[in-house]
Design brief:
By secondary structure, the chain is mainly alpha-helical. It has helices spanning about 1-10, 30-60, 60-80, 90-105, and strands spanning about 20-25, 25-30. A two-stranded antiparallel ribbon has the order 1-2. It is elongated.
Length: about 110
């Protein structure tokens, strides 16, 4: 098994050998299951962020839009580009944007 071999080769060297996956520079390296779990967790967090920003959008739409375009959307854009086959996991985020954020900033 490759995982055991890597553990023997790198044992005592300070290199940590992971079996399922790791996050590296914002991207995900590892099994498909690990990547999907990572994206699902991220989408849950981003939906919460969009909901908070929707509240801001009701009182200051310009500030909410600036925060959205300047910071919030870049995280999930990067993940969509670097983790293959996870587009369908972004459905709840799309719903939060369509039904919460956009009506809050547009009126």
């Amino acid at each position: 098994d490759c995982l055991r071999l890597a553990g023997r080769v790198f044992g005592g060297s300070g290199v940590r050998v992971a079996g399922e996956g790791e996050r590296h520079l914002g991207a995900v390296l590892g099994t498909e299951e690990f990547g999907r779990g990572y994206v699902e967790d991220g989408v849950t967090e981003w939906v919460g962020d969009v909901e908070q920003l929707s509240g801001v959008g009701k009182v200051d739409p310009q500030a909410a839009y600036a925060a959205f375009t300047g910071a919030l959307c870049h995280g999930w854009t990067f993940v969509r580009r670097t983790v293959p086959g996870v587009s369908e996991l972004f459905g709840p985020l799309g719903c939060a944007l369509r039904h919460g954020f956009l009506p809050a900033v547009v009126g």
